[in-house]
Design a protein that fits this description.
Number of strands: 6
Radius of gyration: 14 Å
Shape: globular
Distance between the termini: 32 Å
Largest sheet: 4 strands, mixed
Order of helices and strands: HEEEHEEE
Oligomer: single chain
CATH topology: 2,3-Dihydroxybiphenyl 1,2-Dioxygenase, domain 1
Helix content: 10-25%
Number of helices: 2
Number of domains: 1
Length: 116
């Protein structure tokens, strides 16, 4: 079997609230909106991945979602200026990533990272 994509589905009572965080903050495009579901996507080429974790690393909680960005410093500055709830501040990790955790409007912890 060949996997084409992996799509996380996050439960919320108000999918439209995702537009500001996932659309405006993260720059993802709305590719489907049925009212009860809003799907965001990027035209970047990606490989499907799924991770199973007992902890988030460096003593952090397990994030609900990880999103790799081109410029983590820019994302961090944008999150701070938008007053988003930063759960774990920007850090260089021993396994070769720079990352921070931010809480989305629904309470999910999102790991924003870049590989070095």
């Amino acid at each position: 079997m060949k996997i084409r994509r992996i799509v996380p589905n996050l439960k919320t009572a108000d999918p439209a609230k995702a537009r500001e965080f996932y659309g405006a903050f993260l720059g993802l495009d709305v590719v489907m909106d049925q009212g009860w579901i809003v799907t965001f996507a990027s035209d970047a080429k990606m490989r499907p991945q799924v991770s199973f974790m007992s902890e988030g690393g460096s003593g952090t909680p397990v994030p609900d979602l990880s999103i790799e960005v081109e410029d983590v410093d820019e994302a961090y500055a944008s999150a701070r200026s938008a007053g988003l709830d930063i759960v774990y501040h920007l850090a260089r990790e021993p396994w070769g990533v720079r990352r921070f955790f931010v809480r989305d409007p629904f309470g999910a912890i999102v790991n924003i990272l870049t590989h070095e």
